[in-house]
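Continuing the series of single-chain predictions for the mutant panel. This is the parent chain; the variants come on the following pages.
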Amino acid sequence: MLDMTPRYIKSDLKSRPIHPEGEKPSRWSFMKVLREHSDLKEFYPEIDPYAEAYKFRDNCWAIFVEGNGFGDMWNYLIVGPQKAMLIDTNYGIGNIRALAEHLAPGKEVVCVNTHAHLDHIGGNYYFDQVHIHEYDVEMLKRQMTPNFYTDYLFDEKGEPRYCWVDRADLAPFREYEIVPFKDGDVFDLGEGYEVEVVHLPGHTAGQSGFFDHQTGCMFIGDTTSAFGPTYEPEHGDFCTINALRDALVRFQPRFGQVSGVFPGHGTFDLHACTLQYILDTCNVIIAHPDWYDDKKDFFGTPVYTRNIYQFGSDMKYTMDAVVRE
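Parent structure:
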């Protein structure tokens, strides 16, 4: 049996992983070069000691935060002529709003979430208003409680569960306004700079991407799993591989407009063909759900995986997340 404990990557971040996820070879090599040797990296420990920023377009940033049980993740910042858009806010460790405002000086930062999972919404507390797909509003509301993150990140003795962080550096709880959006809605960042919502359900009912019309960057959030109708009964039809497949088919005529694909985890600035590979994998799973590459236990639920061609990841699904056609 191979030891998949990840090899060391030099880090100046204040966080320290306690139980790091197993190494994914394609991701590790990308992160090793990017974090240790790239001149794209900017680090502002006096503003946010838990985040690294990488400028991958003239007006776009990727913000890296180490994982806390759900893997290392990326948040993204688009700086428009008058406003900036922050896509996701990680686990709420450090002050991602202050970092975003430093990278987009003098501009209002609009906060949007790809979906309502805890590794994407923790820094929402720094904002008065947060935008999310209408189907994920109730999930987001359920997690807006004073002890939600402290109970998740720290055990009964007050010790960190997954990654060492200073409790004092958590985003302070406060309620904020949730503004729902839907597929096709457009955010104007000034002077006609448009970012379009693209509903990419499956992972959650409201999981959405954001398509920057100016740069062609497509920020897809988490699009590599579906846990079935029982996961979110209110909008269960959108928690399926079929729902993701249908959404990708609708967007397929525009694949050629995409200059880069930016997931919430793993490598970023991927070729647009990645979207086709995800679509192809969905079709294989729908036709043959029993042709899986691996089977895992996910909190007591059997989860199956099908490798995604050249993506360095896989599509995870439960059997009730697949509707035979």
